[in-house]
Amino acid sequence: MEQAAAPEHGTEQTAAPAPGTRRPGGRTARTRAAVRDAVLTGLAEHGYPGLTVEYVAEHSGVHKTTLYRRWGGVEGLVADALDLAGEDTWSPPDTGSLEGDLRALAREVCDAFADAADAAAPTAFIAAAFQSDRAADALRAFYAERFSRCEAVVARAVARGEAPADTDAGAVVRAVSAPLFLRLFVTREPIGTALADQSATAVLAAVRAGAFSAEESAPGA
Amino acid sequence: MEQAAAPEHGTEQTAAPAPGTRRPGGRTARTRAAVRDAVLTGLAEHGYPGLTVEYVAEHSGVHKTTLYRRWGGVEGLVADALDLAGEDTWSPPDTGSLEGDLRALAREVCDAFADAADAAAPTAFIAAAFQSDRAADALRAFYAERFSRCEAVVARAVARGEAPADTDAGAVVRAVSAPLFLRLFVTREPIGTALADQSATAVLAAVRAGAFSAEESAPGA
């Protein structure tokens, strides 16, 4: 489709890796990245119900039979794209205070979903999890790992004496972004910086009051 | 499909209204309820991508051409089922304290999604909103109205002197359930009573600290 216009400037050699995706793994890693990029584009354009192995083959330059052999099908392709998304080097904000870090975390959620083009792939992953158990497992693993990185924010706050030692870090970092995700994907309401700040302020107050302390409640999840 | 077994006990006369759905509107209201029931069953069984007008016709006893004429198609059917879901008489808990009410609210979310059969329809509505703007609009309206009923919890707390007069009631009632919805539909993690209680405890502490006061932050959404 878009490929009709591509030969003019030659930027759509489908088998070539996108900038920044060349990995030490060489050809296999490049293929995986090309397939991942095609999956992201397909999800953004058509959503999970419209994504096909044919689309990924066409847009990655990787043959359909190879895709079926190595990824099994659409579910496996989506799960692998999510696994790859989790292999980045993102680390949580480190502003020097718990208040600053929580605020920055919440604002990052806003920023990630503020632009429709940027939001398309993560939104499609969340949507795919409703329709595919394998996508749901991959999404669970992605967020578990992502939020466990975020827990550093709470560990540093404890070290600085800003939070009780037994603060449930996982619950804190989830609570900060939860009101934003609720509005994005359940209540379908607008979000923004003011809401991000309000959420950070509320969670900070709760942490200071010991409401996330293990003694107060320990859900484990 | 299940209809094969139904004639034995005669409980599946598809055009008859389910108990409790008979309305003053008479025949039209009964038809609407029968169609709604068929939509809920279809969403629970097949999800939004698998729901068809044919399925709804077969399970409601309402002719396909009537469904197209009055509801336009699958999107309209789903939106109307959500509109009907919002016409119930549910009211938020009134336990006598803000702590009790917030805890009860959070636990209601747990209960609503604890049983797979009960959870199927609301989950399908949330999933449908990813694929249909009309379903998203209906979902937004449903939750806006539902959370506005919940605000009574905060109004009563203000009247009892348990919360600052300028508390952002809409933000409070959303913040209580947000960590549960986040785990249900984004991070795909288990939820339970302990998590509900932790969320209520945290939001209560934030309310008491004035973190939801208009002066502190006023996102409006």
TrEMBL record, chains A, B:
Keywords in alphabetical order: DNA-binding, Transcription, Transcription regulation
Compositional bias per record (Low complexity), positions renumbered to this chain: 14-31
Segments of this protein annotated with the region Disordered: 1-31
Residue ranges for the DNA-binding region feature of this UniProt entry: 52-71
InterPro entries, per the entry: Homeodomain-like_sf, HTH-type_TetR-like_transc_reg, HTH_TetR, Tet_transcr_reg_TetR-rel_C_sf, TetR_C
PROSITE patterns assigned to the protein according to its UniProt record, in alphabetical order: HTH_TETR_2
Signal peptide bounds: none
Pfam families: TetR_C_11, TetR_N
HTH tetR-type domain sequence ranges: 29-89
Domain of life from the UniProt record: Bacteria
UniProt xrefs under SUPFAM superfamilies: Homeodomain-like, Tetracyclin repressor-like, C-terminal domain
Database matches in Gene3D superfamilies: Homeodomain-like (1.10.10.60), Tetracycline Repressor, domain 2 (1.10.357.10)
Protein name (database record): TetR/AcrR family transcriptional regulator C-terminal ligand-binding domain-containing protein
Natural source organism: Streptomyces coeruleoprunus
